[in-house]
Amino acid sequence: MVAEPSSRSASGSATRDPVVEPSKPRLLKLLGPGLVTGASDDDPSGIATYSQAGAQFGYAASWSLVLTYPLMVAIQIISARVGRTTGHGLAGNIARCHPRWVAYAVTVPLLIANIINIGADLGAMGDALKLLVGGSNRVYVVMFGAICIGLQVLLAYKRYVAVLKWLSLALLTYVAALFVTKVDWAALAWSIALPKLSFDPAYLSILVAIFGTTISPYLFFWQASQEAEDLKEKPGERPLIGHPEQADPARERIQLDTAIGMAISNVIALAIVTTTAATLNPAGLTDIQSSVDAAKALEPIAGSFAKVIFAVGILGTGILAVPVLAGSAAYAIGETAKWPVGLSREPREAKAFYLAVSIATAIGVALNFTEVDPIRALVWSAIVNGVVAVPIMVILMLLAADPKIMKQFVIGPILKTLGWIATAAMTAAIIGMLVTAI
């Protein structure tokens, strides 16, 4: 089959080059928004959180990554179904069904949290490349910021999505790191099967950070918007509210795509926690402030190979995650403000949307040139995400169960139950942290 995707030039003009699309296994064709969303969840911010959890508490927090899996699958399936059913992203649906101030009340904090995350991720990427080859980390921050903007502005949507899928392979580096460490598998299994809960404020804070990293609000907006975007790129596919005959294959694809994407996300997160729990915690190296700190600390214990693959993973996941963070923020703000939005549009067709992508990334770059230390903000940004996620999750659950919005495609009892459990678990974790801190 021959496809003719649009290639963008720097001026925004489009040219069309015939591209022979190779045949792909059916599974690879089905994987899309769910795979990219899951992979982007393990960004340098997440790596720092998981590294700190393993270094500070050993295997004790491992159970949380098993618990969060069904909950994040449910929430992401619900997000995807909202986008596929209505043809609009999450922010677009909120703006259509609620007063505009409600939409801004949830999207502005999301924008702030995403920009902090972008700055922290870019800083971690700059430090990781400096760790590998030397040089100036600030120069690398600017370089990576430009690359991430270019991926979204200059690449045609189909090619951009393909790049994101390939970048998800960077996560395999953390599986490799796991196999060069000596893991106490029995201790890991016991910590998962019989978790020991603690009311230590530091322990509760890391649990909130894990929840905020794995069940993160930018992922809701991104996957819903990408489902809506894909409708523009796939001939014959339309929103389900107008074409109910497409419902069964669409729901099957979303479930498979999301289940695999979130499984990859949590398996990699568990691998990072396990690696640092098996190496840094026994050595007493518990003060891990960033993903690069973890990479440095691994070298004298697990060898230079572990350091290199940890650092390479930071680079790959960062290039994947920063555009997703900037893009989800632009979707959220753009849909709320009712701008023309979408990575499938040419820049001249959605100037404000692409400007928001570029500005969010540029501010993230600028944070690395101020007194604000974006690396130390990594875990805190995850906690902010956890706090912001609760009202967004409540609104998402109400939207997905509203027949005025979803018609006959309202979520069923299983998804509804898991979705509300996820919302309650996030709420409980945050309340526990605040109560013990006070």
TrEMBL record:
It is found in: Membrane. Residues 1-14 have a biased composition (Polar residues). Its main location: membrane. One of its GO terms (biological process) is iron ion transmembrane transport. It holds the Pfam family Nramp. PANTHER family: NATURAL RESISTANCE-ASSOCIATED MACROPHAGE PROTEIN 2, SOLUTE CARRIER PROTEIN FAMILY 11 MEMBER. This is Iron transporter. The lineage of its organism: Bacteria, Pseudomonadati, Pseudomonadota, Alphaproteobacteria, Hyphomicrobiales.
